[in-house]
Amino acid sequence: MLLTKKTAIAFLLFIGVAVSAFRSDNAVTAPTDDFATVIIYRGGQFLNAGKNYVLFANGERICELSNNKYIEHHVKPGHISYMANETGISLFKKETGFALDVEAGKKYYIQCTVKTSFTRSRMELSEVTENTAKRDMEKLTVDNCQERMNKN
User: What are 75-94's pLDDT values in tens digits?
Assistant: First the structure.
């Protein structure tokens, strides 16, 4: 069976789109000794899967973290304050925060967990060990905002 030129081009286009759609962690950059690496992740939570939360570092927006995703944030050594705020319109929004003192060349892991009460939901940030993070992150993928962060 001989493929026509149009069929072959369509097939190659399909393969290209499929490969780019399922790419893995190639958007993450390698850390340098001048910076600390803070890995922030949000595991899968079925009930809050549709809610996104904006992450801020020292008041600057860095990412809108989605369910089952993580980012690597490269920062200068020193004190860094992270805040999380729910996106969209809702009543009783609550910002949550976490402060961290980081050293150059080291990695830090922050776990994000969505907590829900009767009147609101919030994303709590807490530092975890590398072993805990690696176990939690086995099936997570890099968030789409990582590429934008790498450009800045």
Answer: 999 999 999 887 654 444 55
**What is the CB-side half-sphere exposure of residue 76 using CA atoms within 13 A?**
1
CA distance 73 to 107: 10
> In the chain, at which residue ranges do the beta strands (DSSP E only) sit?
36-42, 53-57, 60-65, 69-75, 78-86, 96-102, 107-116, 121-128, 141-142
Query: Parallel, antiparallel, or unpaired for β 141-142 and 121-128?
Result: unpaired
Virtual torsion, Cα 28, 29, 35, 37, nearest 10 deg: 20
What lies within 8 Å, CB to CB, of 132 at 6+ separation is 109, 111
Characterize the bridge pairing of strands 69-75 and 121-128.
unpaired
Measured distance CA(111)–CA(53) in Å, rounded:
13
Q: What span, in angstroms and rounded, lies between the C-alpha atoms of 58 and 68?
A: 24
